[in-house]
Amino acid sequence: MSEATIYLGSLPFGKQGFYVTFPGQAPAVVGVKKAVKQAFGKTNAVADCLYDFKVACRHAIAQQILAKRREFIGHNRENLYGTFVSELSGETFPMTELAIDHTPPLTFDALLLAFVKEHSINPMDVAVVRREGWTLLADDRLADAWREYHQERAVLRPISTGENALHRPRTTEWLTLCGTSA
């Protein structure tokens, strides 16, 4: 394996991100997980598995989130190029910064945790597949059950993309559920 260099730099869209470079190659943007893996040569198998599970579950409900976004924009069509008020902060943002978020206490993490507990699912045992760059639940029945559960319980709200990136409440109960400890 060639010696890699990891550094933090400005991404093309203005935020900070990690780059990895190998001798004689152009820098490539990488996520935090890949940067850590390159820098230290290891990852946490439980964290990787749980991450993939959550990503696949997010993908399973993506159409519900998009439908809520279309519904919100539809009700505010006159403001399509205007502004909206975040239900998190009460601040006004340009419509281009609209994100749809789960309203606490039923955050995405809390809903998914309740779902796996109610169905006695260990995320470590759930198969995921990768198709065309997407991480998906391999079991269509599980994906359908999660979509139905989410549809019945989720309360979604408009917030800004910046707030959405910063407001990610999580629980440590996942480690217990996955059969490991911190």
Q: Which regions contain 5 or more consecutive residues with pLDDT less than 50?
A: none
Percent helix among the residues? 40-55%
Give the terminus-to-terminus CA distance: 31 Å
Largest sheet: 3 strands, antiparallel
| Average of the residue pLDDT scores | 81
**Rg, please?**
19 Å
Query: How many DSSP-defined strands?
Result: 9
Order of helices and strands: EEEHHHEEEHEEHEHH
Strand content: 15-25%
Largest beta sheet: strand ordering: 1-2-3
Number of domains: 2
| Total helical elements | 7
List descriptors.
182 residues, alpha+beta, 2 domains, three-stranded antiparallel beta sheet, two-stranded antiparallel ribbon, 7 helices, globular
Describe this protein's structure.
- With 182 residues, the chain is α+β, with helices and mostly antiparallel strands.
- It has two domains: 5-40, no CATH class; 45-177, no CATH class.
- Helix content is 41%, strand content 21%.
- The protein has seven helices and nine strands.
- It has helices at residues 32-40, 45-60, 62-75, 108-118, 140-153, 161-166, 173-177; strands at residues 5-10, 16-21, 28-30, 83-85, 92-94, 98-102, 128-131, 134-137, 156-160.
- The strands form four sheets. A three-stranded antiparallel beta sheet has the order 1-2-3, covered by helices on one side.
- A hairpin with a 5-residue loop joins strand 1 and strand 2 (16-21).
- It is globular, with a radius of gyration of 19 Å.
Protein topology:
Blueprint: E1 5-10, E2 16-21, E3 28-30, H1 32-40, H2 45-60, H3 62-75, E4 83-85, E5 92-94, E6 98-102, H4 108-118, E7 128-131, E8 134-137, H5 140-153, E9 156-160, H6 161-166, H7 173-177
Antiparallel strand pairs: 1-2, 2-3, 4-5, 6-9, 7-8
